[in-house]
Amino acid sequence: MRRPLRRYSRKQRRRWKLGRKPLRAEYALRYRSIFRGRGFSRGFKEAGFEILAAVENFKPKAKTYRTNFPEVKLYVEDIKRLNPAEILREVGRPDVIIGGPPCEPFTAINPRRRERAIDRLYRDPIGRLVLYFIRFVEVIRPEIFVMEQVPQIMELEDALRREFKKAGYDVHFNILNALDYGVPQVRRRVFVSNVEIRPKSVKGKRAVWEAIRDVPPMLRTTSPGSPVVG
User: Fold this and answer.
1) How far is the C-alpha of 164 from the C-alpha of 182, rounded, in Å?
2) pLDDT tens digits, residue range 29-40?
3) What pTM, to 2 d.p., does this model score?
């Protein structure tokens, strides 16, 4: 039995262009990537979304995901081999699809990334996972989708606009910095979506200690079976 659904204010609905129908689910697309942890799904869950399903090809990460989200139907498979229509039949149509394809083909810190930006999307086998995300969006037709990537994805803005247009969506490239939202880190990311994302920033910047000072002391073990508080 599903838990009660979150109700959204008129202001939120106007911002997200949702109309009157309440959102009922989040649909997380997981990718084989060391850069995509559980934070994306956790954030949506804490915002009141129900997670219907997730995709994770890397078994150790899938195990961690299942520990954190035991209620979610998890597909431990390569997303390239999954049929989005079959998943749609199995879990139902979500209101939102989220995903964070691997950033290695696009980030400037990768010395082996392809020279031409267009090749990073269409020729790099990992970069092509972005196209599989778009395929899921095209087949499932959510009200909202959000894809997170590194700022260098903007080099492919025109190509991505074309691909999403073919899938039936116009897109916004929302550039946000985690430092503006209470995270003690300069971390700029692009959130590609069919809606504008403009969250209200927090006042003042936070130092690392301000963010972690209320974290409980960790347990250290000096010898087997004898934990001490440090």
Assistant:
1) 31
2) 433 222 244 678
3) 0.77
